[in-house]
Automatic annotation (TrEMBL):
<dbReference type="InterPro" id="IPR050272">
    <property type="entry name" value="Isochorismatase-like_hydrls"/>
</dbReference>
<protein>
    <submittedName>
        <fullName>Cysteine hydrolase</fullName>
    </submittedName>
</protein>
<keyword id="KW-0378">Hydrolase</keyword>
<dbReference type="InterPro" id="IPR000868">
    <property type="entry name" value="Isochorismatase-like_dom"/>
</dbReference>
<dbReference type="InterPro" id="IPR036380">
    <property type="entry name" value="Isochorismatase-like_sf"/>
</dbReference>
<dbReference type="GO" id="GO:0016787">
    <property type="term" value="F:hydrolase activity"/>
</dbReference>
<feature type="domain" description="Isochorismatase-like">
    <location>
        <begin position="4"/>
        <end position="176"/>
    </location>
</feature>
<dbReference type="Pfam" id="PF00857">
    <property type="entry name" value="Isochorismatase"/>
</dbReference>
């Protein structure tokens, strides 16, 4: 029997602010509500660093500009957006790089709970979703991507990934078409 989890990635205030789409958060909220109604665990993954960013190398092109700063960032900016926030008891995974697996305990959390199927959502399609999908596929998880539960700054990149790249390793559905299985166990 397969056990699924909905993975909500990088839907943090600072990230959502950079990707304005008034329809995105309501769609994502619908996916979260659908998962909860079906008894599917919802796991939140977000990027976070210690004060001074000791986890960040100046050689890292994405995060390197942060290296050496005195603070770990504004807690409000790194908090999950209120329209897609964790509920009491939802696991929260803090990651140190783009993939939800990088520098986090996500793999251990999933394996201990017997989860072998991940349903991926998040911002950005070309960032956390792509990186997590690739790593999860290499770890032999079954995968589903909710195409409109993901968002990217470049609509064409989003389209190419969800229509041409992701289907090689995952089922790709819309939030409305996703019907989670109740039999998680």
């Amino acid at each position: 029997m397969s056990s699924s989890a909905l993975l909500v990635m990088d839907v943090q205030n600072a990230v959502v602010h950079r990707y304005p789409d008034p329809d995105y958060l309501p769609r994502l909220g619908a996916a979260i509500a659908t998962a909860r109604a079906a008894g599917v665990p919802v796991i939140f993954a977000g990027v976070g660093f210690r004060p001074g960013f000791p986890e960040v190398s100046p050689r890292n092109r994405m995060f390197g500009a942060m290296a050496g700063r005195a603070t770990g960032g504004d807690d409000r900016a790194m908090a999950f957006h209120a329209d897609a926030a964790p509920a009491e008891g939802d696991p929260i995974v803090i990651k140190r790089r783009v993939s939800a697996f990088a520098g986090s305990d996500l793999d251990m959390l999933l394996r201990v709970q017997g989860i072998d199927h991940l349903v991926l959502t998040g911002i950005a399609t070309s960032g956390v979703v792509l990186s997590t999908l690739r790593q999860a596929a290499d770890l032999d998880f079954r995968l589903t991507v909710l195409s409109d539960g993901c968002l990217d700054a470049d609509p064409e990149v989003h389209r190419v990934l969800t229509e041409k790249i992701f289907p090689a390793q995952a089922d790709v559905l819309t939030v409305a078409a996703w019907e989670p299985k109740v039999s998680n166990g």
